[in-house]
Amino acid sequence: MADTLTRLEATIASRTGADPASSYVASLFAKGRGTIARKFGEEAVETIVAALGEDKSALAGEAADTLFHLMILLADAGIRLADVLTILEQREGTSGHDEKANRPS
Length: 105
Hints:
CATH architecture: Orthogonal Bundle
CATH topology: Helix Hairpins
CATH superfamily: MazG-like
Helix content: over 70%
Radius of gyration: 16 Å
Largest sheet: none
CATH class: Mainly Alpha
Number of domains: 1
Number of strands: 0
Distance between the termini: 34 Å
Oligomer: single chain
Shape: globular
């Protein structure tokens, strides 16, 4: 699975500066971070709606859309998937309550 995400990250990166008419990802990059963030938010809401239903396939599809758009947002911000995974690894084994309490305010 990590290979899939690594390939997706590389594909997204390759769309930076591409012709917006020929690439959905390039069209989002051209519209800017606000549009990318809103699209990510829309997909997150669709994932929530799907989660409230009984269709596991619909939820999996919406989760894929959400992850895809999150990766576009991260790329636009110059954040690599490895950076996010490093943070998750650092948090591993720590209670979520403790981790949240120890975050800077």
